[in-house]
Design brief:
Layout lengths: L1 H6 L21 H7 L18 H5 L2 H10 L10 H7 L3 H22 L2 H6 L2 H24 L7 H14 L17 H9 L9 H18 L6 H19 L5 H16 L15 H15 L5 H15 L16 H26 L8 H5 L1
Helix pairs in contact: 4-6, 6-8, 6-9, 11-12, 11-13, 12-13, 14-16, 15-16
């Protein structure tokens, strides 16, 4: 019992420990638990599963291996790595795959550390188990980069990599580059030209990696700059992904669309929806995108809105913007749209002016400012 307690001490990433029973006393544990005063009145269920015979764990190897392959039961050709990667496009299925691979590697590690297993199991079957570990490890690395995964891999990588280093030759592991940097022309051109890591990738894999990296960049950084713009851009990327998955577009069309989004919407923002007066003002464009949907709900009343806000806004906004409102009783639909755009531009510029005048350093630590 003292040995069990020591082996059972907690440590980061530790799941279990080994006890070597030289004297064959494990079978007497139940009796010891019953007579040991310190455990008087303990609930037997608390100790169920606390330890297991290594042979019982090894007997699970075939099943956990089968569980891993079953994830790809819909894929006809299990040697088609591209088909396996596309099958893992859904986040939920990839996480299921990662968990199954983690479980398989854990049981295989126990088996490969057992002299009895090595002695009794056939070498071809041992080689197949090792092959599957290598095959699925390389697949995991590929899809992790392809789909720019945000899953916490700490619970997977260290243990599996140690197992790979111990039992699989290093030259059997496929090395991967860093994910494409969409803001680096050198990195992006490598993807387009199929050089380096991208030389062995399919067209669809290139498109998936580019799409995934852009979506991740939008979620983590860009959406804070202009939520409305990047929300619509994220929806456009997702729509293209779904069109490819549904075989509505080819892999070449998919990649070209992602390249166009990267070139024209992210690294060099072309905003056809933003008036020329503020097209080069990212801050004003962000306010414009956020405000316009609100004003659009009152399109029929835009002339009256323009009258009420015209004097206040136009007098305050710096001259020279080229934006002026004029009161008209009756407006055509086209004129209403123009008026709406003009009013939204003025409001966006006024927001910037107010913020510039009222901005305060360390605002949240100033009680008086917060109360206002």
């Amino acid at each position: 019992m003292q040995a069990i307690a020591r082996v059972n001490r907690l440590a980061e990433s530790k799941e279990f420990g080994f006890i070597i029973d030289y004297a064959n006393v494990v079978s007497e544990l139940d009796k010891a638990f019953n007579i040991y005063d310190a455990l008087e009145g303990y609930d037997k269920t608390d100790l169920e599963g606390a330890f297991a015979n290594i042979d019982m764990e090894i007997s699970r190897l075939a099943q956990v291996n089968s569980n891993l392959w079953d994830i790809f039961k819909e894929v006809q050709n299990k040697n088609d790595n591209e088909a396996l990667q596309q099958e893992l496009a859904k986040d939920s299925l990839r996480e299921e795959f990662y968990d199954a691979l983690n479980e398989y590697s854990k049981v295989l590690k126990i088996a490969l550390s057992s002299e009895k297993f090595i002695r009794n199991e056939s070498q071809p079957k041992i080689n197949r188990y090792k092959h599957d570990l290598r095959y699925f490890y390389n697949l995991k690395e590929a899809v992790k980069q392809r789909y720019a995964d945000t899953v916490d891999f700490k619970k997977y990588d260290k243990k599996i990599e140690k197992l790979m280093n111990t039992y699989i030759y290093a030259n059997e592991i496929v090395p991967l580059n860093q994910p494409v940097n969409i803001f680096s022309e050198e990195s992006f051109n490598q993807l387009k030209s199929g050089k380096g890591h991208y030389a062995n990738l399919s067209v669809a894999a290139k498109a998936d990696e580019l799409a995934s990296v852009m979506k991740k960049e939008i979620v983590e950084k860009l959406a804070l700059e202009d939520p409305v713009y990047y929300q619509s851009l994220s929806e456009r990327i997702q729509k293209t992904i779904e069109e490819f998955r549904n075989k509505q577009i080819s892999d070449v069309e998919y990649l070209q669309e992602m390249i166009d989004v990267r070139n024209n919407k992210i690294t060099h923002k072309k905003r056809e929806d933003i008036p020329a007066e503020i097209n080069n003002n990212d801050e004003a464009a962000a306010y414009y995108s956020a405000i316009k949907p609100f004003y659009s709900r009152y399109l029929g009343r835009v002339a009256k809105i323009g009258v009420s806000l015209n004097a206040h806004l136009e007098n305050d906004v710096n001259a020279g913007t080229g934006v002026h409102l004029h009161c008209q009783n009756e407006l055509s639909e086209a004129s209403k749209t123009v008026k709406l755009n003009e009013l939204t531009v003025l409001t966006a510029l006024k927001f910037i002016q107010i913020l510039d005048l009222e901005q305060k350093v360390d605002f949240w630590n100033d009680e008086n400012a917060v109360k206002k």
